[in-house]
UniProtKB/TrEMBL annotation:
It comes from Puniceicoccus vermicola. GO terms for biological process: phosphorelay signal transduction system; regulation of DNA-templated transcription. GO terms for molecular function: ATP binding. Residues 375-400 are annotated as: Disordered. It holds the Pfam family Sigma54_activat. This is Sigma-54-dependent Fis family transcriptional regulator. Residues 2-116 form the Response regulatory domain. The keyword ATP-binding applies. PANTHER family: ALGINATE BIOSYNTHESIS TRANSCRIPTIONAL REGULATORY PROTEIN ALGB, TRANSCRIPTIONAL REGULATORY PROTEIN. Residues 141-370 form the Sigma-54 factor interaction domain. It comes from the Bacteria. InterPro entries: AAA+_ATPase (IPR003593), AAA_lid_NorR (IPR058031), CheY-like_superfamily (IPR011006), Homeodomain-like_sf (IPR009057), P-loop_NTPase (IPR027417), Sig_transdc_resp-reg_receiver (IPR001789), Sigma_54_int (IPR002078), Sigma_54_int_dom_ATP-bd_1 (IPR025662). The modification 4-aspartylphosphate is found at D51.
Length: 444
């Protein structure tokens, strides 16, 4: 994944670039809006970090101009200013998220990993789709499956209400995409959409992330900070993987839902909130309630309206349209407009169970588009996990060490992939691990 960092301070650029690189992503830098816009237009940038102030220029004005150009990549604004107004201004200007200085490498990693995950689920990545493909994730909402159509019909009616929504579904089914879609259809669509990933932080840090904290409230709290609840004011607060919310925080979230009130960590002043909450989980919350791990009153507060996204295995009529939409995107990226699946490959796609859902499908199609020697993708271009009977190239009586098989496979992917990050995604390992393996193999 390619990440652009825009800041007028050299030390910030160098620190951020080093951090992004150490995480395993490719870093690009720009000192001013003109350099940044040029890089956005000339390079395939997937995410951007942007300072709120760029010398005498406004980072938010630049972000607005980026959006006006039709560039819809995720943008994270960092600022030294702790006011909730600055955070809300950033989100209203088109920022995906914000981060307050001083920040730490783990904060950057968390944000980039979340963006990386989202890119695997969207039916078409966030930048403008090539001709012939559906823009953004619209293909997800044009399902031929009756169960999905019913869910989306309820979702469209619920979007205009102020009711809390609970989205259920396995990992990779598009819960985050649906949450953003609901926000875009609501009366709050011009206000911030703020995401909190519940399992990504410890209990104490998650409470601070949600509600904010006062200076000195805990070790490392060097300044007053507003949380995501304040940043989402008048907009939508999306609580991803709510089933993993620590029990200690559940009463505080319940109070937010019931009373529209909260306090920052270390603060006695009660504050009011005006947010619409959408939550999502891949867990069975009823079972969590029965086991005593999730509050029953919170469960019913969250599920005023419940939406369920079925796994791909229950959407057989959607499998080929989704796969072909992914393929059209990658064919456009690689300038191979005639790329297509053979009938045998189509049959393989239809017969597979897709445990990883949309995320897995996107990865499989990207891999096949890279490995295909011509315009036709056959079953042999698909991972062996998709084959009913995996054919071995090892002849009887010839033993080959596992390490050698792994090395040959890695070499093949590295030869075909356009970047280390793309190769790592196809191999389903992180970039840092692939870098070490490549170095050990003498390919670095």
């Amino acid at each position: 994944m390619n990440v652009l960092i825009v800041d007028d301070e050299k030390n910030i650029l160098e620190t951020m670039a080093a951090t992004v690189t150490s995480i395993g992503y490719q870093a690009f830098t720009a000192h001013n809006p003109r350099q940044a816009m040029r890089q956005l237009k000339e390079k395939d940038i997937h995410a951007m970090f942007l300072d709120m102030r760029l010398g005498k220029e406004s980072g938010l004005d630049f972000l607005k101009s980026v959006r006006n150009e039709g560039i819809q990549l995720p943008a994270i604004v960092f600022t030294a200013y702790s006011s909730v107004e600055s955070a809300i201004d950033a989100l209203k200007s088109g920022a995906t998220d914000y981060i307050q200085k001083p920040f730490y490498p783990k904060d950057i990693k968390q944000m980039l990993d979340r963006i990386h995950e989202d890119r695997h689920v969207e039916a078409v990545p966030a930048k403008t789709a090539p001709a012939g493909t559906k823009k953004r994730s619209t293909i997800l909402f044009e399902s031929r499956q009756e169960s999905v159509q019913k869910t989306l019909a309820v979702a469209e009616k619920a979007a205009s209400s102020e009711a809390n929504l609970l989205i259920l579904g396995q990992s990779g089914t598009g819960k985050t995409v649906l949450a953003r879609h609901l926000h875009s259809l609501s009366s709050r669509s011009q206000e911030p959409f703020v995401t909190v990933n519940c399992p990504s932080l410890s209990r104490d840090l998650l409470e601070s992330e949600l509600f904010g904290h006062m200076k000195g409230a805990f070790t490392g709290a060097v300044s007053d900070t507003w949380g995501k609840v304040a940043a989402a004011n008048k907009g939508t607060l999306f609580l991803d993987e709510i089933g993993e919310l620590p029990q200690e925080i559940q009463p505080k979230l319940l109070r937010l839902l019931q009373e529209k009130e909260y306090e920052r960590v270390g603060e006695t002043q009660t504050r009011s909130s005006n947010v619409r909450v959408i939550a999502a989980t891949n867990r069975n919350l009823e079972a969590e309630v029965e086991a005593g791990r999730f509050r029953v009153d919170l469960y019913y507060r969250l599920k005023v309206i419940e939406l369920s996204l079925p796994p791909l295995v229950e959407r057989p009529s959607d499998i080929l349209p989704l796969a072909e939409n992914y393929l059209a995107y990658f064919a456009g990226e690689s300038k191979r407009p005639n790329l297509h699946f053979s009938q045998e490959a189509q049959n393989t796609l239809l017969e597979y169970g897709w445990p990883g859902n949309l995320r897995e499908m996107r990865n499989v199609v990207e891999r096949a588009s890279i490995l295909s020697e011509n315009d036709e993708i056959g079953p042999h271009h698909l991972p062996s996990s998709l084959q009913e009977r995996e054919e071995s190239s090892i002849r009887p009586g010839h033993s080959v060490p596992l390490a050698r098989l792994e090395e040959e496979h890695i070499r093949l992917i590295l030869e075909k992939a356009e970047s280390l990050e793309q190769a790592a995604r196809i191999l389903e390992i992180d970039t840092a691990t692939l870098y070490r393996k490549r170095k050990r193999m003498g390919l670095a």
